[in-house]
Amino acid sequence: xxxxxxxxxxxxxxxxxxxxxxxxxxxxxxxxxxxxxxxxxxxxxxxxxxxxxxxxxxxxxxxxxxxxxxxxxxxxxxxxxxxxxxxxxxxxxxxxxxxxxxxxxxxxxxxxxxxxxxxxxxxxxxxxxxxxxxxxxxxxxxxxxxxxxxxxxxxxxxxxxxxxxxxxxxxxxxxxxxxxxxxxxxxxxxxxxxxxxxxxxxxxxxxxxxxxxxxxxxxxxxxxxxxxxxxxxxxxxxxxxxxxxxxxxxxxxxxxxxxxxxxxxxxxxxxxxxxxxxx
Length: 279
Fold this sequence. Notes:
alpha/beta, 7-stranded mixed beta sheet, 9 helices
């Protein structure tokens, strides 16, 4: 029995090594080559696009709208159909790969910083008038988190936050904060398995603002000169944008509620930027 376990363990290690060489290293190479590529705009509303080693490196806007007069945009780094990205996402969902999440977080941070003060068809400005920037992520339900043991979205968001703080330009005076802002109240079905009309119902009322995070955020904003904040929400994969939409609406609805305004003073959300690794 012990010898069988050793063989299985060795096979798993070999697969892990093979995955890193074939998929992860290709992702790293592709992303590094993208480093010096100048941005350009095309008819598809894509800031830039390049295919290297089978990966379409194409940060692009896939949704921009307003909700209660607050600007919201959703932005993705990669196309999920690319086999390398698809396998990397699967790796992130099955293993707590901090090396990959940190690397992707850094690339997301650089993309945001390149577009920081652009109010164009592709992005929304952040940190105007030195308003604080709050980084958060799409949560898992408590039972799903216990089952998996980690949340890859949180790991990516932490990587983004750490690199964003270091890389942000001197002129950006805004404080940047990381919060476990949202909670998922219940398990939901996999969005990709549902018909279009069923996806919003599947997510209805599943997100809420964490009380602890809310208290910390209100205290932070109340002590500072700015009552306005920008929010960045991070997810690994988005298809229709319904998850981002539900999370954004729950956040805006909460801070726009009369109860919050009366008890804690009004916190105004300027812009919400939703960032996905892949779409």
